[in-house]
Amino acid sequence: MAKSNPVKQSAQGALNRFKMEVASELGIPDYENMDKGNLSSRENGYVGGNMTKKMVAYAEQAMSQGQNSAVSSSAKTRFPRG
User: Fold this and answer.
1) Rounded CA separation 21/28 (Å)
2) CB-based contacts of 16: which residues, under 8 Å, 6+ apart?
């Protein structure tokens, strides 16, 4: 079964830059080029978890400023068919 990728191709680069920014903020330099297998699950989880925190905070702020349509149109949820 083919794995589906919910990230639009045009957003992939921005998400990778965001990941590197968050890793740098967490004190993990050169995250892009390092072997992630040499990091603990906790360290790798911190990067993804902090990305999620920041994205949720951004969406909450946008919604509180009345930008509901911008948030909902940019965050379509798709459920895999099973």
Assistant:
1) 10
2) 32
Q: Which residues 6+ apart lie within 8 Å of 61 measured at CB? A: none
Is residue 9's pLDDT more than 90? no
Residue entry with tokens 């603990």: 40
Report pLDDT digits (tens) over 66-79: 877 766 666 555 65
10-21 as b/e: b if 16+ CB within 10 A: eeeeeeeeebbe
Closest C-alpha among 61, 42, 47 to residue 17: 47
User: Which tokens go with 2?
Assistant: 């083919």
